[in-house]
Design goal:
Layout (H helix, E strand, L loop, with lengths): L9 H11 L1 H14 L3 H13 L3 H14 L4 H23 L4 H33 L1
Helix pairs in contact: 1-6, 2-5, 2-6, 3-6, 4-5, 5-6
């Protein structure tokens, strides 16, 4: 019997990983809504993730938001977001086969997909809250 299992491409592996972390993205989006972050703050994060050329820019942005937030809203979600980004970085390092350029490319694609998921759930959670009020 012939084994017809094929090797997955890197984009397919990225998509599968994003599906795997989808439940955590829901938690992050809901947490951001529950914390009371404004739509503009979430869109700012999404814009940064989309336009960043380095993964560390995303991490630094979140740390900066936590550090300058006098109301403590970012403090409540910052560690969760950084933890999820840490998992993305770990996975990208494994997938990148010690090729720094490939690892960065994978991290950025994963981060962009993750951000889309988180923002979608934030927006959905916001609508759910207003429907209940």
């Amino acid at each position: 019997m012939e084994n017809k299992t094929r090797r997955l491409t890197t984009p397919e592996k990225i998509d599968l990983y994003l599906e795997e972390i989808y439940p955590q993205s829901i938690i992050a989006g809901n947490e951001m809504a529950d914390t009371g972050l404004r739509n503009t703050q979430i869109r700012g994060l999404e814009t940064l993730v989309t336009s960043a050329s380095r993964f560390s820019e995303i991490i630094n942005y979140i740390k900066n938001q936590v550090g300058k937030d006098k109301k403590g809203k970012w403090l409540k979600v910052g560690s969760l977001l950084l933890e999820q980004l840490g998992k993305i970085e770990d996975k990208a390092n494994k997938m990148g086969n010690e090729d720094p350029a490939k690892i960065l490319e994978i991290k950025m694609k994963m981060a962009r997909g993750w951000a889309k998921q988180v923002v979608a759930h934030y927006l959905y959670s916001e609508v759910q809250k207003t429907d209940k009020e």
